[in-house]
Write a structure and sequence with these properties.
It is a single chain. By secondary structure, the chain is of the alpha/beta class. Among the domains are: 127 residues, no CATH class; 176 residues, Fe-S hydro-lyase, tartrate dehydratase beta-type, catalytic domain (fumarase, Alpha-Beta Barrel). The chain is 33% helix and 24% strand. It is built from 14 helices and 19 strands. It has a five-stranded mixed beta barrel. Strands 6-2-7-12 form a four-stranded mixed β-sheet. It has a four-stranded mixed β-sheet with strand order 8-11-9-10. The longest helix has 20 residues.
Length: 506
């Protein structure tokens, strides 16, 4: 009989979550590097360069890969011959490990979990509770997979109850373009097939805990229908040309995972869950001998990528820019921003619009200013601000027209595409939308030399800050005429990939 002590489980969970906050899995880094080396789209190549540089910086500095440090997912395989020693429930032990990890003074992680999700949406303050799945198995060990799943990729999860004769491939190829770029490709797709609705979703999520090994499968060939699907979807999804950050390119997915389960004769449940460029997961085993400790990787295994910006890149002083200056900013153009910007996410936008509706004076003047969609990690030691990458811009679409009309705002910075309503508002008001790279949060934070809360302090990480920045790199994603690179880029690269395949006779 193996005795699993309460403190050993708590310490192991906390250590694993700290570890994955700043170390990518090495197989993920190797896959991104391979994709970077073969990429022909310069915009996508630049995005992957920033992801690789950010990853190396985080591994060396022990700070989060992304400002969204995720919702904790834990998969427990509990041996039947285990005895527990402790006063807490196992669920409470895991949540205490989460609490300790996210409040670690040397590497504070952002608390993103809100209680009463359709009501007050109150932040729990410590990122608990975790989402936990238990399976009772033979043996005397406790095997655990731990992941921190970003909200942007989780938001793009899909489910369908297909007819038994329907094609899973056709459904996935229909859904991936609808996902846009908010899941921060390139990443992985997890697909669950069969069982019931909740079982398919669980299979898809669990598949994302596996290593990237599509090249091995390509070399040896498939031995099951699930492996056949992996190979077919890997090629066909990449042939869509979505590319890194949705900018168009050769690599949209680094791997596709498929897990299946027996199903009722009348059903074919199918779930699709993407993993983002901040892929964070690890596993460990407890055997009664003490807590599990993660083994740090060799930093020399990280590629040394340089990302150079030429002298021709436009540099913008935000203290001097006017609406007329925006008119010649070109879609896909790289711009370096310096000066002062405001920040604001969902909660701040909602409150601003409510204040406008009620005729209240806003706490900050937005006239002629840019707003950055971000919820930063709290700083530690000498930091001005913690990792501060962009959040998904489409969540702000429904507020965009009101802010452009009523506040004098002229520019927005976020990640991924904008929807039709936001693009129309941007065009109508001759405003601009700029994209920062999702998955490069620590790198972005190094451009921030000043930060202070200027409104809505009670919202925590969703408060409005004023950042002072120097040479923050962004890409023009929607210009003043409403042209979006997230529409034109994938279209161009899908055509190029098709033309290349025709030349090769594929």
């Amino acid at each position: 009989m193996t005795v699993i002590r309460q403190d050993d489980l708590i310490e192991s969970i906390a250590d694993a979550l700290q570890f994955i906050s700043y170390y990518h899995p090495l197989d993920f880094i190797q896959a991104i590097h391979r994709a970077y080396e073969r990429e022909e789209s310069q915009a996508a190549k630049d995005a992957m360069a920033q992801i690789l540089i950010n990853s190396r910086m985080c591994a060396m500095g022990h700070r989060p890969l992304c400002q969204d440090t995720g919702i904790v997912n834990v998969f427990m395989k509990v041996g039947m011959d285990i005895q527990w020693q402790g006063s807490m429930s196992v669920t409470d032990m895991i949540n205490e490990g989460v609490r300790q990890a996210y409040n670690h003074p040397d590497n504070l992680l952002r608390a993103s979990i809100l209680a009463d999700p359709d009501g007050a949406r109150r932040n729990t303050g410590d990122n608990t509770p975790a989402v936990i799945s238990y399976e009772i198995v033979p043996g005397n060990k406790l095997v655990i997979d731990v992941a921190a799943k970003g909200g942007g990729s989780e938001a793009k999860s899909k489910f369908a109850m297909l007819n038994p004769s329907d094609s899973v491939v056709d459904w996935v190829l229909q859904e991936v373009p609808k996902m846009g770029a908010g899941w921060c490709p390139p990443g992985m797709l997890g697909i669950g097939i069969g069982g019931t609705a909740e079982k398919a979703m669980l299979l898809a999520k669990e598949s994302l805990m596996e290593s990237i090994n599509i090249q091995e499968l390509q070399d040896r060939g498939p031995s099951s229908r699930a492996e056949e699907l992996r190979l077919e979807l890997f090629k066909k999804v990449n042939d869509l040309g979505v590319g890194a950050q949705g900018l168009g390119g050769l690599t949209t997915v680094l791997d596709v995972k498929v897990k299946d389960f027996p199903a009722h004769a009348a059903n074919k449940a199918v779930a699709l869950i993407p993993n983002c460029a901040a892929s964070r997961h690890t596993h460990f085993t407890l055997d009664g001998s003490g807590p599990a400790k993660q083994t740090p990787p060799n930093i020399e295994d990280w590629p040394k990528i340089s990302w150079e910006i030429g002298d021709s890149v436009r540099k913008v002083d935000l203290g001097k820019v006017t609406k007329n200056d925006l008119l010649d900013w070109m879609p896909g153009e790289t711009i370096l921003l310096s000066g002062k910007i405001l920040t604001g996410r969902d909660a701040a936008h909602k409150r601003i619009v409510e204040m406008i509706t009620d005729g209240e004076k806003l706490p900050v003047d937005m006239t002629g200013r840019f707003i950055y969609y971000v919820g930063p990690v709290d700083p530690v030691r000498e930091e001005i601000v913690g990792p501060a990458g962009p959040t998904t811009a489409t969540r702000m679409d429904k507020f965009t027209r009101t802010l452009l009309e009523k506040t004098g705002l002229i520019g927005m910075i976020g990640k991924a595409e904008r929807g039709p309503s936001a693009i129309d508002a941007i065009r109508d008001h001759k405003a601009i939308y700029l994209m920062a790279v999702g998955g490069a949060a620590y790198l972005v934070s190094k451009a921030i030399i000043g930060a202070k809360v200027v409104a809505f302090e009670d919202l925590g990480m969703e408060a409005i800050y004023e950042f002072e920045i120097v040479d923050m790199p962004v890409t023009v994603a929607v210009d003043t005429n409403g042209e979006s690179v997230h529409r034109t880029g994938p279209e161009i690269w899908k055509t190029k990939i098709e033309e290349h395949a025709l030349k090769l006779g594929e």
